Amino acid sequence: MALYLISVLERDTTLCFLLFQVIKLPPRKERNLVVAVRNVPHVPGHTISDTIDHFFQTNHPNNYLCHQAVYNANKYAKLVRRRERLQNWLDYNQLKFERHPEKRPTKKTGFLGLWGGRVDSIEYYKQQIKQLDKQMTLERQKIVKDPKSILPVAFVSFNSRWGAAVCAQTEQSKNPTLWLTYWAPEPRDVYWRNLAIPFVSLSIRKLIISLSVFALVFFYMIPIAFVQSLANLEGLERVAPFLRPVIEL
């Protein structure tokens, strides 16, 4: 009886503590619901961002909140990945030098470090990162200033779930290939490089992939069916009569 009372008291204490922690949390703000929009048409004299803003203010005036246009930053992303690799090599050589301060690490500047002049690794990677930072700054400015860098893709935020659902689940244009909307995935689930692929090219790729999968499954069934027919001795004897003496042993 005493153990039962102790367990009940311990359970109630834990529940009260958890409830208190929940009460202390700040009130949740209503999360903006986001819809992805693709294949935005180009309007002469207007940027893609202006076209998107005007379209949703006209067609969804009560629910439209804001939008974020997508920029074609694939080249910039390559520079970022290259800088990360250089930074990793710099950190590695600095750590190596800290463990063995009597000798500074060196490397050859040729292809894969197989040939070329030998230089100080730490200073080499610092210089490479410095030059790359300048390239990244110029590329970032180019992306922001060039209207052609804006892709016909955007993430549109709404102030209500109903407004976002209406936009995501209905056609926005008489032309079924324009203003394509769907629920926006999580940012980490977006393969950003593919957003720069035109709609027609993307549709062709989907068709090719579908046909390839069908062909793979269809032609894969032929050898499977043949092997399955050999799974018993009767089928093997029917397919290969010359093996009958071996089978009858």
Automatic annotation (TrEMBL):
Domain CSC1/OSCA1-like 7TM region: 205-248
Name listed for the protein in its UniProt record: CSC1/OSCA1-like cytosolic domain-containing protein
Organism encoding this protein: Fagus sylvatica
Gene Ontology CC: plasma membrane
Highest taxon of source: Eukaryota
InterPro entries according to UniProt: Csc1-like, CSC1/OSCA1-like_7TM, CSC1/OSCA1-like_cyt
GO MF annotation: an example: calcium-activated cation channel activity
Keywords recorded for this protein, A-Z: Calcium, Ion channel, Ion transport, Membrane, Transmembrane, Transmembrane helix, Transport
Membrane-spanning ranges: 207-226
Pfam name, any one: RSN1_7TM
All residue ranges annotated as the CSC1/OSCA1-like cytosolic domain in the record: 35-194
